[in-house]
Every structure is written in structure tokens, then in C-alpha cells.
Design goal:
Blueprint lengths: L18 E2 L5 H11 L3 E4 L9 E4 H9 L10 H4 L13 H11 L3 E6 L2 E7 H6 L7
Parallel strand pairs: 1-2
Antiparallel strand pairs: 2-3, 4-5
């Protein structure tokens, strides 16, 4: 049996991460997502003792659209995930995929020395993490 080296998460993570304030309404967050071409936003910590939050397109679909809520009347902090599972940029891609499966997530911030340096998702792991696709 051969062992494949899938490489580290840093090889496939998205390095452009967009941060927003949790008090932003969901309509404004959607405008930021559209402008930045992203399906996820990191939510800033309120202070050094707080944790980051994460807002995904799927959160908006499930918690706003499906429930017929007005996006301009819902704040990001009401529907975001917090705290979030973060991965290290040197984690092997295969272990990141296992972590996603184990915890039922599909996107995670990548943190190094306590700072968010990227985002990784199943999409990025598969399409940008496999070296044989180039």
C-alpha cells in the first residue's frame, strides 16, 4: 500500500479573507460577499478575549431566506457560527478533509499564530489541493 502525500492546507487555501463586524445586517453582508466574490465572511472579534465568527452563504439560505426573514432586519451575529473550528496551514489536506467530515463542516478559517491567514473548504481541498489536476 502506498501513502500519498496530499500536501498542506496552505497550498490550497484562499488567502484573501474578508472581515466584517457582527452588527452588520445580512443584506449589507451579502453586498460585501458579492463585491469580494466570496461565499464566506470572517466576523471580527469584539476584543482580545472574544473568538472569531464565520458567516457562510448556507447560513443566510437556511436562517434567513428559508425562514422568510428580511435580510436588512437580521444582524450577522444572529446567524453566524461562533466559535469556529480553525485549521493550521501546515495540516495535511487529508486530515483537514477528515476533520470536516468528523464535525460536519465544509469551510474553516486557517490560522497561524492566532491570526486568520486564509480560508479552506471542500471545494478548495479537492480542486486546488490535488497536484495532478494542473
Amino acid at each position: 500500500m502506498s501513502v500519498r502525500n496530499w500536501g498542506p492546507v496552505r497550498n490550497c487555501m484562499r488567502t484573501k479573507v474578508t472581515f466584517v463586524d457582527g452588527r452588520l445586517d445580512v443584506l449589507q453582508a451579502l453586498k460585501v460577499m458579492k463585491r469580494e466574490g466570496t461565499t464566506s465572511l470572517m466576523v471580527n472579534r469584539r476584543d482580545d478575549n472574544d473568538e472569531y465568527g464565520l458567516l457562510l452563504f448556507s447560513d443566510i439560505a437556511k436562517k434567513v431566506i428559508a425562514k422568510n426573514r428580511a435580510p436588512e432586519r437580521v444582524n450577522v451575529y444572529e446567524i453566524m457560527a461562533k466559535p469556529v473550528i480553525m485549521v493550521h496551514p501546515d495540516m495535511e489536506i487529508r486530515y483537514c478533509a477528515r476533520l470536516f467530515e468528523k464535525f460536519g463542516i465544509n469551510t474553516a478559517p486557517v490560522a497561524e499564530n492566532g491570526e486568520v491567514v486564509g480560508m479552506v473548504s471542500y471545494y478548495r481541498l479537492v480542486l486546488h489541493g490535488l497536484p495532478d489536476l494542473d
